[in-house]
Amino acid sequence: MRVTVCELPYERLEIKSMWNALCAHTRSRRSELVVLPEFAFVEPVWNREVFDHQVWDAQVKLFDHWLERLPELGAEHVIGARPSTQDGACFNEGFLWTPAAGYRPLRRKRYLPDEPGGWEARWFQRANDPFRVFQAGTLTFGLNICTELWALDSYAAYAAVPASAVVAPRATAAATIEKWLAVGRVAAVRAGAYCISSNRVHPDGSCGGVGWIIDPDGQTLALTSSESPFATVALDLSAAVAARSSYPRYVFR
């Protein structure tokens, strides 16, 4: 499966040109799956300490607009996380989009930071959705939204199911990239799966880009950067199958 990761801004002028470039990339590379950053296209509401219904509703509406543009990617599958309102409650909702079926909610974010620059617990309802495996064509995957990459127990469950990938839409700071890469490698090695992640990018460094594709042995296959904000890799899914029979996965059966 040909998978594309990216780093994307949200500011109106920047996202317009970057989106066009991403679509040109995914079409030329014949990408089958595109992973978007956490809350791609919309304002990082978690920067605001006080919840504002008008701001929230505007971001939901804006993301709905961008959903209509996902066919421009030319991909069979798109995975991301978005603002979603359900019965009056606000959630950070992971989703899978396909041209045939449209939008499909997957699971909602459970673990929410509550600190300056990350007031997510003020904006999102904490969900109790389990970490389970989903299907995108031939790819079986678990979805860990940003902070949930640190939910280390989920990787044992993915290894047992088994999953071929851990997919992680992110909004992480430039100063912390090394520790996020470290947990991405742990996710891949423990689950015996690819770890696939895209990140937001902001000029102030509050989100620092660097999307990645890491193989089941923890080797980095691709990293995005400001010079190369998109990366596409053809995944050999049989490598994930083989990994589950090798160390350290077999020890924990």
UniProtKB/TrEMBL annotation:
SUPFAM superfamilies: Carbon-nitrogen hydrolase. It holds the Pfam family CN_hydrolase. The keyword Protease does not apply. Residues 1-237 form the CN hydrolase domain. Keywords: Hydrolase. Signal peptide: none annotated. It comes from the Bacteria. The keyword Hydrolase applies. Gene3D superfamilies: Carbon-nitrogen hydrolase (3.60.110.10). One of its GO terms (molecular function) is hydrolase activity, acting on carbon-nitrogen (but not peptide) bonds, in linear amides. InterPro entries: Aliph_Amidase/BUP, C-N_Hydrolase, C-N_Hydrolase_sf. PANTHER family: BETA-UREIDOPROPIONASE (PTHR43674:SF2), NITRILASE C965.09-RELATED (PTHR43674). This is NAD synthetase. The lineage of its organism: Bacteria, Pseudomonadati, Pseudomonadota, Betaproteobacteria, Candidatus Accumulibacter.
